Structure formats: structure tokens, C-alpha cells
Amino acid sequence: MVFLAILLTVVVLVVAYAFYEKDLVMAEVYGSEKRRGSLIVAVTVVILVIVWGWYYMWSTSPQRELDAQAKDCSNTTLAFVMSQNYVKQRLKSPSSAEFPYVIDRGVQVVPDGQCGFYVSAYVDSQNGFGAMIRSSYQANISYDRKSKLWRLGDLSIQ
């Protein structure tokens, strides 16, 4: 959103400069003493105050923070992917791990409403002898919005 506000600022300044330059040229060509430069500057300032005032109101909105929290704390797909990372750390052969999709049968991701998730799924991976085996796992993970880090509570692999 900052990018859009900056882009709009640049566009407004370029347009204002173009009008200002046109006004100077017209004043020279027609020998007019009457110039509209101050009006162009005033309109530009008003538009920029409105743009940045809107951005400030948007960025400090409590509803925006609530929406961001709801989005972060209900992303079950990301929670499932993060649980896979924790499971891979405990496998004998993490590179051989094959996980199901979040929508597959046998996968359950339940948010607890406080940025925590219960994940129940399975993984196919090689054991110490090189044979592919299927293991079920359950994980309790949570997302800390301030540090933007995922934390593992419990992990059980059977």
C-alpha cells in the first residue's frame, strides 16, 4: 500500500509540474502577467494531503489489524506446510519424505482460534533400511504474529 501512495504522489507531482510549466510557457507567449502557478501548487498540496491522510488512516486502522490477525491465524494450509518441516527434521531420510496434500483424506488441520493449530496427517519416507514406510503424525504448532515465527508444541510420529 505504501508503494501505491508513493506512486500516486509521483504521478500527481509530474502532472502538477507539467501544468505549471505549461502555465509559464503560456504566460511568456501571450505576455500575460496573470499566472495560475499558485493555484496549481495549492491543488497539488491538497491532493497530496488527501492521499497521505488516507494512507495514514488505513495503516492505523484497528480493523486492518483484526483482519490481518484473522488471516494469519486461520491459514490452515500454511500450518500444514510448517508441520511438514518439523516432521522432516525428525525423519531418518528427510529428502525421501512424501506428504499428502492438505485436502487429501487422512489430513486434518484444526485452528484453535488463538493462532494455534492441531495437525494430523501422514508421511511416506524411507526408514533406516531404505524401505518406504508410512508414518502418521500429530503436531500442535502455533504462529507468533509479533516475531513472525512458527513454534512447535508437541509432535508425535508413529
Give a brief rundown of this model.
The protein has 158 residues and is an alpha+beta fold.
Descriptive labels:
158 residues, 2 domains, 4 helices, 49% helix
Q: What is the residue-averaged pLDDT?
A: 89
How many domains, in number, for the residues? 2
Structural class based on helices, strands and sheet pairing:
alpha+beta
Range of strand content: 15-25%
Distance between the termini: 46 Å
The main sheet orders its strands as 1-2-3-4
The SSE order reads HHHHEEEE
Helix proportion range = 40-55%
- Principal-axes geometry comes out as elongated
* Largest sheet features: 4 strands, antiparallel
**Low-pLDDT windows of residues:** none
Q: Please provide the count of β strands.
A: 4
The quaternary structure here is single chain
Radius of gyration: 29 Å
Helix count from the secondary structure assignment? 4
